[in-house]
Amino acid sequence: MSCIEVIFSDRSEHAARLAEIKSRLSIGPMLLAELSPTGEPSAQQKVRAILADVRREGDDALVRYSRQFDQFAGDAGALRVSAASIAAAASQADTGFIAALDTAIANVRRYQQAMLPSEPAAIVPAGGGAGAQLAVRYQPLQRVGVYVPGGAGAYPSTVVMSVVPAQVAGVAEICLCSPVRGGQVSAAVLAAASRLGINEVYAVGGAQAIAAMAFGTHSIKPVDKIVGPGNTYVQLAKKELFGVVDIDSFAGPSEVIVLADDSASPTAVAAELLAQAEHAPGSCLLITSSAALATKVQQQMDIQVARLPRCELTTKALAYASALVVTPSHEIAVALVNDFAPEHLQITTREARRDAMRIIHAGAIFIGNHTPVAAGDYIAGPSHVLPTSGTGRFFSGLSAESFRKRISMVEYDAGALHAAADAIITLARGEGFEAHARSIMARRDGSV
Question: What is the pTM of this model?
Fold first, then answer.
């Protein structure tokens, strides 16, 4: 039996399975579920209890939950990682690893600087004359919290992809939270923080970390925005606290779609799909009009998955929400990609660039056989913090612009206000707001 199934999108017997995969990738069920199937408290209810405890008890709750869920053994004084430990992680790291980190940092910084919009010239409103000017000012957020997961592995790349855009935007204060594993925060994560000049790192993970950054505790100052990936509990905590703070998005498990035709290499396509599945949970779909390619990719995946260190977990992930989907035509394949709105889309077709321009829903698009998703994960430049679970229909990936707010600037002199007064008064009274109208009259006429 193969590790992954082939589905024909136009066959009625496969329609239910394709719909099931799409449903499993949807964010909706996770957001809306209040009770688990067993009637026990759901993840959402557990998260709400943790948030309430951290808000009420502060550091005491952080320590208690960190001991319960992670491998934290200290007291409140050990929540913050020392500056010496952060510096030591970088100095003791492999020089090749540091060089790779520095390359990634430079690339991400260059890309983010290039895409940051500048403030437009002042705009004169219609009918206002030269005495009225409108402008917009971009203001960096003051303080941002970055969550770096630490479950299945260490993710220094997430430090780079989250911190550099914030730095480019001009954020004054950046703190990191990451869970303890093996008695300490990952040395690779600390090394990345050091190379970026971040010295505020906390050994806290899970929903309790999100609560601490949002509400603040004795040890951790509250932030204006929280970004970064994480498990279901982390994402539900971010969702619950949106409005107390801003968040990047509500993210589900990592996913990739490969759009390919019969010119693609089955070996490369199989490797691309497995690269996402090994996140475990992770989802991967091949969408192609070539049944022959799907068969060859299936054979390659069976060969390659057996060689992976995480073979068992990857195989389990493949069974949940992954498939090789064969469509009647390339046009239908493109339409199906847009319907899924994938986090990552890798295109290996004869006209890859043209096909990329036909995609309107995706977090990031990787064009051509020589552009694997891993290039974007680590070193290309755009942040790898991307919308998942179909939310690419309305969310964008993290960027420097995510860490700035726009402030409208409006300035009228006496002549401009006089010219616009009648229209303002008419509209205000039309809505039943007489005091609004009189605020204009007081300035124009000197009386109300």
Answer: 0.92
